[in-house]
C-alpha cells in the first residue's frame, strides 16, 4: 500500500513527537491518529512509554475503515466505533498494515531493534527518547 510511508512520516511520527512532549512525568501516553486515502481512512493507535534512560517504547496498531461512496448509498456509512479499538470501538488491528507502517517508523526514528509484538495487537519498538 502506497500510503504506509506517508502515514508513518506525516501522521504517526508527528504523534510520537507530540506524545514525547506530553510524557514529562514518565507515564504512558497514547493517541489515535488518522490518514485519509481514496475511499478509506487509515487509523493508528500510538502509545509512548519511557523505557530505560534516554529511550522510549513506541507501540503501534493500525487499521482501515472504508469510507467509499457505496457504503453511503447502501445506508451503511462508517460509524464512530470503526475509528476506535476495543473496548471503546469495534476496530481490529491489521497486522500487515501495522507491520508496514511500523517498518517505516522504525527506520525514520532510528529504532534500537526490530519491531516486537506488544499488547493488544500492537507492535513495539524502542527508540532514542527525544528531548521534550
Query: What's the alpha carbon Rg, rounded to whole Å?
Result: 15 Å
Strand content: 25-35%
Structural class: alpha+beta
Helix content, binned percent: 25-40%
Q: Give the tally of β-strands.
A: 5
Low-confidence parts: none
- In DSSP terms (H or I, runs of 4 or more residues), the helix count works out at 3
Q: Which key phrases capture this entry?
A:
132 residues, 29% helix, 30% strand
Structure description:
With 132 residues, the protein is α+β, with helices and mostly antiparallel strands. It is built from three helices and five strands, in the order αβββααββ. It has helices spanning 4-22, 69-73, 95-108; strands spanning 29-36, 40-50, 55-66, 116-117, 123-128. Strands 1-2-3-5-4 form a five-stranded antiparallel beta sheet. A hairpin with a 5-residue loop joins strand 4 (116-117) and strand 5 (123-128). Helix 1 crosses helix 3. The radius of gyration is 15 Å and the shape is globular.
Compose a concise summary of this entry.
This protein is of the alpha+beta class and 132 residues long.
Amino acid at each position: 500500500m502506497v500510503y504506509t510511508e506517508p502515514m508513518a512520516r506525516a501522521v504517526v511520527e508527528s504523534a510520537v513527537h507530540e506524545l514525547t512532549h506530553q510524557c514529562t512525568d514518565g507515564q504512558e501516553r497514547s493517541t489515535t491518529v488518522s490518514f485519509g486515502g481514496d475511499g478509506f481512512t487509515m487509523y493508528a493507535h500510538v502509545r509512548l512509554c519511557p523505557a530505560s534512560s534516554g529511550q522510549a517504547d513506541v507501540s503501534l496498531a493500525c487499521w482501515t475503515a472504508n469510507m467509499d461512496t457505496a457504503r453511503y448509498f447502501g445506508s451503511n456509512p462508517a460509524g464512530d466505533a470503526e475509528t476506535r479499538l476495543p473496548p471503546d470501538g469495534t476496530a481490529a488491528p491489521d497486522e500487515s498494515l501495522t507491520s508496514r507502517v511500523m517498518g517505516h517508523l522504525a527506520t525514520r526514528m532510528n529504532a534500537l531493534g526490530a519491531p516486537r509484538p506488544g499488547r493488544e495487537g500492537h507492535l513495539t519498538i524502542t527508540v532514542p527518547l527525544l528531548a521534550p
